[in-house]
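Hi R.,

Here are the chain sequences for the assembly we discussed:
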Amino acid sequence: ETGLDGWLRYAPLPASISWPSVPKHIVVLNTTKTSPVYTAGQELQRGIQNILGQSCHFSSGKPDESIIVGTLDAYVSTYGNISQSVDLKDEGFWLSTENNIVQIVGQNERGALYGAFEYLSMLAQANFSSVAYASNPDAPIRWVNQWDNLDGSIERGYGGASIFFSNGTIVNNLTRVAEYARLLASVGINAVVINNVNANASILSPQNIDGLGRIADTMRPYGVQVGLSLYFASPTSGVQGQANLTTFDPLDPQVITWWGNVTDQIYERVPDLAGYLVKASSEGQPGPITYNRTLAQGANLFAKALQPHGGRVLFRAFVYNQLNESDWKADRANAAVDFFKPLDGEFDENVVVQIKYGPIDFQVREPASPLFANLFHTNAAIELEVTQEYLGQQTHLVYLPPLWNTVLDFDMRIDNKTSLVRDIIAGRTFNRSLGGYAAVVNVGTNQTWLGSHLSMANCYAYGRLAWNPTEDTTKIHEDWSRLTFGLDQNVVDTITHMALESWPAYENYSGNLGIQTLTDILYTHFGPNPQSQDNNGWGQWTRADHTTMGMDRTVSNGTGYSGTYPPEVAAMYENIESTPDNLLLWFHHVNYTQKLKSGKTVIQHFYDAHYAGAETAQTFAQQWQTLAGKIDRQRFDEQLYQLRYQAGHSIVWRDAIVNFYHNISGIADESGRVGNHPHRIEAESMTLNGYIPYAVSPPETASDYY
Ligand code: BDP
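And here is the predicted structure of the full complex:
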């Protein structure tokens, strides 16, 4: 198997399993081919055929011994009320398998498709229990973002070229686009933003708008809407086929008209466009600040153009300054609250501020972004990253949901009351109409989608958590594993065990105690590079010197960041004693000899964690190898190759970081391991043909370095 089917393989159940009969008739209460209800019928037929080897026939009329799929309205007008009272919210579904009738009833068409996928997921896992329940999504925004460029490359994508674009335009063959929509719909994702947040104005040419229409037509049967990232200065970019202005000032009437016209053109071709995603006044991208306008004025420009069509603006909070490293009060982590808090209440109702989970940038551990606790009159969504930009770029196994949960489950204690991030983004805490989830996924044309079979668990789990953030992430992984690799309990347990060990291991050998990922900050974001963490213009600093490290983000002495949380949380982070060890260096600048709550010193923790993390990473390939013969050859071999790479690279990580801090601090490892390099073979001790010595940067990652 190549991995192309992801978790939707519909693999035949093993002959050793017996199961009760499943209805042989499928009643589809909408037969229009573009309808997700029609798609649901097709999936049910295909899935039952493949999983159970049973042919189902489409029929109409009698509900007995049938699988009925449709919207609640269609169900009621055909059969009268459902016998039980059903509480369906927007896009939810009712699933009942009682009395040899399967009812799959969606609040809308999309909901019906979600219900069909849920039923098929049960069958594929040999779960034939009798159920009757309603399931509703926790939040309306459940989007994925693709950072695809029009030339076909993908920013921070590790699974090949774009499935959407090539050579400046939309590809002709949209087969993979349909398959992507199917995977996304199966876990409740309702929209995809198809192009990079570092956007290109030429996406708005008439030819590309038509291409966008083809993509939307391809995804519509799966209930997946399309969204677009916009380049803020598009009106002045000379977009082929559009007027060219001399300004992109969001308050200029010509600019307002320009965006209104372009938006109308897009909706003419794509009447159900989800909306726009905007990165503005950020990392060199133009934005409203160019004209001394506020970010809210920038966001509302698009909101007003979209409003008549029912579209939404996801406006990114990833706007930062405070990059003067010699100023110990400067802190990029403060930027989002500085920019957005004063604008609370100024965003239109169809704007959602999209906030990265932490205040810096997708690090291995960050505190929850305080912006979630500073917007009371503004819709908010969390931005997660399925693509493992700072987390091993799919060559390292890192199951991310436990990391995401540190933020989703975090209690901001607003007004000294329980205020979980997941409740804030769902709109419950402040009674907001919109909100939810976005994740940068960046699948590509690689048959594995993301570049690694095991990484697909993150994509699957993202959808499941966006639907229900209280679901147990271990159980989600077990489901994914069964659907992806079969029902053998040993396989499920082994892969899930590896997954649960993976994020803690990666944190151990990359960056500890909240110091950030200690990777190459300058561009690649891959591999160890602790010296790049200071002396950089990105505001990601560790402030490491010969005796101390960590960012002082306290109000009393530091950058004041801890004070951007509500009082109870602020007080916790203000003091070293109450700051959890795993965020100590995020909030405090301390001596290497500072004692942790564990009793270890900071530096000894660094040494121990790096050896422990790399040790765990050595076991992944071994654990995987115990599954030989239980997983098809191609996926087994491809994953084994990557896990072996990870085993080696975790050692590179370990030794580079340990050496760096050993050299800078001059403090010995209590266990005397530094320089011993367990599990490591130096290039110098091998016989290699065709290789020449090369000065590796940073030197800590080089062979025989110490
Ligand atoms: C950073 C990425 C960069 C993105 C940026 C963003 O390195 O490629 O453009 O985030 O989110 O993490 O806009």
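Residues 486-551+589-706 form a domain with the Alpha-d-glucuronidase, C-terminal Domain fold (CATH 3.90.1330.10). The mean pLDDT is 96.

Let me know if anything looks off.

Best,
T.
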